[in-house]
Write the structure tokens for this entry.
Amino acid sequence: MHRLFEEFIHPVLNASKPRSLLEIGVLHGKNTLNLLRWCAGNGAHLISLDPVEWTGDLPEEFRKGDSNYKYKRGQSRFEDWKIRPEGLEEVFREGLDRYWTCKKKRSLDYFVSPEVDSFDAYLIDGDHNFFTVITELFMIHRFSRKGTAVFLHDVAKTTNARLDEYYEPTLIPYHQIVGPQQGILTALEVVLSKMWG
């Protein structure tokens, strides 16, 4: 999502001036760094959700992942893959962590937890499958208010627009994995049709 920041995300943030942002999915932290630089200049706060284990020059409490979560389980090329979030290393070097809260959990667990809150802006770049994204969107709709900004990654011109990818397939209902509806764009279309169709 970081490649979309200057052209698409930054102008919307400047126009809407959100005070609270929720980022779903961090990966290497490049967009997190962009968001926190914006937060620092605009008096805003970012909460990021990501259950994966990280390596690199980070405080220990940020390295540990959710013990129930295995990134891309069952995909042999990712079996020993470690994520080093260079963007987050820069966050700490620049002292931007004062504008940031990181929760090492999945979005679907966060949205049903007592700590869930509403935000002015949501950025979704987590698990790339119909079930997760449609659930996230319905939960966001439940908590959102007029003027809430929602950004989605990999909606158009990507494989994941119409085809699911499962970062942790054991946490997705089997009937959804074998079901006919797949992809991020499909989830968005269903949500929009149910709300405004």
Remarks:
- The first strand starts at residue 20 and ends at 24.
